[in-house]
Amino acid sequence: MTGERGTATEERTHAPVMVDAVLAALAPHDGEAFVDGTFGGGGYASALLKAADCRVWGVDRDPDAVSRGAELVREHPDRARVLEGRFSEMESLLAGRGVDGIDGVALDLGVSSFQLDDPARGFSFQADGPLDMRMEREGRDAAAVVNEEDEATLRKLISTYGEERHAGRIARGIVAGRAASPIRTTRELTDIVVRAMPDGSRRRRGDIHPATRTFQALRIHVNDEIGELRKGLAAAERLLNPRGRLAVVSFHSLEDREVKRFLRARAGSLPGPSRHLPRPSERPAPATFELLFRGARRAAAAETAANPRARSARLRAARRTRAPIDRPGAPT
Question: In Å, what is the CA distance from 285 to each residue of 31, 231, 236, 265, 270?
Fold first, then answer.
């Protein structure tokens, strides 16, 4: 799930987003080892292998992505491997191959264009298909969520994960729609969402389809994407060697906020306590990351013109310090 990710409303190619900026942040050198934690079509992995005589471990929870990776492994039999699993499991996946340290980690968050392009996966409202959305093809699917959760739960998840201001109307529409018959397809759900919108919001506004945020919310919920991101960032922190680099590309504000909070906290750059409050007696944990640049970088105008998916991409990057991880509950 490398830089081939984006929103379902955008024109999709399989080119990795912001690949030059990601490579600049990861700065691969001969002899180093990297994790492409969201392999997808292998865009970042391939770029790393071309940039230096390094080794790349691809990781993806989608078995289809792992199958696609076979070609890259054939091209680079001594330098590339693709492992099936979640990027939050990168430590155990690599430990099973005798690897306990890595020089760089790339994460490209969200859903891959390969998943969006396949109607059978149920990620996109642009083509009719089963309401699935499972990256791993197992567990509870989106159809189970919309047909089984109560109205309050649906409203909360659509509001929280989709940042949809009409979440209440949509949740009521889903409950009313499923009372007539179960909601099984992406087209059925899309029609319900559009009908639930106020008249003025039913039309497309720019590239934003009325169902965009609801589909995003369901996908994030079904795949526990925010939970995986939190665990994955912590796993990268533990796995990276001193001076190892972390580069994370996100496509919506929920993801970007998580990455921003994590890196600012680990770099010791969170705002200090109020002068009106007593200072904490415990010493602050040592900074385990140093930011490679302030804020988030965006794709250049030339890239967004050639690939509209890059418009919403944000890159944040940091370098691991030599400080040990000194936090309650952290492995030693």
Answer: 32, 19, 18, 9, 12
Query: Phi and psi at residue 105, in whole multiples of 5°?
Result: -130, 130
Please name the helix (run of DSSP H) or strand (run of DSSP E) that holds residue 326, with its range, or none.
none
Do 237 and 268 fall within a single domain?
Answer: yes
Whether 284 is covered by a domain: the verdict is: yes
In which domain, by residue range, is 83 found? 19-114+225-320
Taking the C-alpha atoms of residue 252 and residue 313, their distance in angstroms, rounded to an integer, is 8
What is the average per-residue pLDDT within 97-107? Answer: 97
Confidence band for 9, pLDDT divided at 50, 70 and 90: very low
Judged against a pLDDT cut of 50, whether residue 332 lies above it is answered with no
pTM exceeds cut of 0.85: yes
Q: Are residues 110 and 232 in the same domain?
A: yes
Whether residue 242 lies inside any domain: the answer is yes
Could you tell me if 199 and 242 lie in one domain? no
> CA–CA separation, 128 vs 132, rounded Å?
11
The single-letter code of the amino acid at 195 is: R
pLDDT at 281 exceeding the cut of 70: no
CATH number, position 310: 3.40.50.150
Q: Strand, helix or coil at 192? A: helix
Residue 199 pLDDT? 73
Residue 76 and residue 63: Cα distance in Å, rounded?
20
| Average pLDDT over every residue of 6-24 | 67
What does the alpha-carbon distance between residue 139 and residue 211 come to, in Å, rounded to a whole number?
24
% the chain with pLDDT above 70: 87
The structure tokens listed for 138 are 């197992």
What's the domain count of the chain?
2
Q: Do 103 and 136 share a domain, yes or no?
A: no
Among the listed residues 233, 256, 231, the one whose alpha carbon sits nearest the alpha carbon of residue 316: 256
Which tokens is 196 given? 């639930």
